Amino acid sequence: EGTKTFAAVDLGASNGRVMVGRVGPGTLHLTRAHRFPNRPVRLPEGLRWDILGLYGGVLDGLRAAGPVDSLGIDSWAVDYGLLDAEGALLGNPVHYRDPRTHTVAEKVWATVPPDELYRATGIQHAPFNTLCQLVAAQGTPQLAAAKRLLLIPDLISYWLTGEQGTELTNASTTQLIDPRTRDWAVGPARRLSIDLGLFAPLRRPGDPAGSLLPHVLEATGPGGPVPVTTVGSHDTASAVAAVPARPGERFAYLCTGTWSLAGLELDSPVTTDASRAANFTNELGVDGTIRFLRNIMGMWLLQECMRTWGESDIAPLLAEAAGVPALRSVVDAADPAFLAPGAMPERIAAACRATGQRAPETRGETTRCILDSLALAHRHAIREAQRLADRAVDVVHVVGGGARNALLCQLTADACGLPVVAGPAEAAALGNVLVQARAHGSAGDSAAIRELVASTQPLTRYEPSGDRAVWESAARRAGGWSGPS
Ligand code: LRH
């Protein structure tokens, strides 16, 4: 019947999943084979990913998935593992929230001024960009010994197949790719003494990426040889590929998870001074698209509070938050001050006080402050994106975990003054599956992929409600970014 089965490995900053998608004409069915926590580890040398634990979770997931026609891997962006001359991993990959990059910006900009770097790469300044991480690592024994750098999904792919590559959408988040040529930004790399020879050759979504090694097949269970297919290996690239927009729809997207990524899909990058000043980034998407977006701290703010509180269940917090009066106090949810882990409830309270607002006291109040602040930041980013790219938007597609958060979706609709279409929550896995499906002949072009998602996945629509003026005045209170918009 032409239906094929694909496994999507989707590694997020707080958990990993192996999903199984069955795709055929007019059919798209996604199930979860395995979900496992991603727990960063604090060591004397800093904050590290437990990459072997994650790899173990991937193998368990592939076993649970059963026989598939292909598999693809996506994860959070920017981080990498270093390999020695024999291909062995040199230490635990550093977490992008590790403080080693805190003071690196000045060093980078002294060599390549920020406006030049932005025009050359289209990537916002963020201390966690791979470029900043590599400059911070210069002079360390590990980098000196390294012969190869593999981004996280490419590292997992290497361990599964023995083959090395650098997937393009994720490569763009290194801040070492020119978004116009879609190839390495050789000039900035040379000036910053970053050796581009560390990177394996570029490959694109849809390209073959090898097949599972015999010892991997042994671990993942019976079945024939399984090809690995390159997908948009940056989770946000995969998620945006699965946004259920209809042809001609003027949409913004909001990918919600640990981060909120809010912006537009464009044909070409916007690298004006205004867009740099607004810290908008131009990441490469699947099929030659540009993701023009802003990073917002996202559910990280709440996840970190929950870690501090020792609370693992979000439902009671959301229920409490729904009963707290709206917009009592708000913070700038895009402020890099919230990037580092630790003491999040106190930092949020301090930010409220610093802007002359009442500090939230209960867990419900803190949760409410976070949701209101996220909605405000979503509003600001989507308005700015339209202004900077000179594009109007009629609808906001919310995909990722936050699509299940009804309060967040309604607040986002209210704040933006636009309808929100929420879903699918597993957009990254769906985009991963569908790019594989296309490479294996069971899905159509990018518009057909979106149509398939729109016609098969449950979506919830939220109409904007309430008084928009309250958001205007709240934006002025949060300080920082809110400016005169
Ligand atoms: C979301 C994400 C985001 C990046 C961040 C490092 O998971 O990939 O797009 O900015 O992680």
Automatic annotation (TrEMBL):
Domain of life from the UniProt record: Bacteria
Transmembrane segments annotated in the record for this chain: none
Nucleotide-binding recorded as keyword: yes
SUPFAM superfamilies: Actin-like ATPase domain (SSF53067)
Single GO molecular function: transferase activity
Record domain Carbohydrate kinase FGGY N-terminal: where: 68-240
EC number: 2.7.1.-
Keywords: ATP-binding, Disulfide bond, Kinase, Nucleotide-binding, Rhamnose metabolism, Transferase
Span of domain Carbohydrate kinase FGGY C-terminal: 252-439
Gene3D superfamilies: 3.30.420.40
Family as reported in the entry's similarity comment: Belongs to the FGGY kinase family.
Protein's UniProt name: Rhamnulokinase family protein
Organism: Streptomyces microflavus (Streptomyces lipmanii)
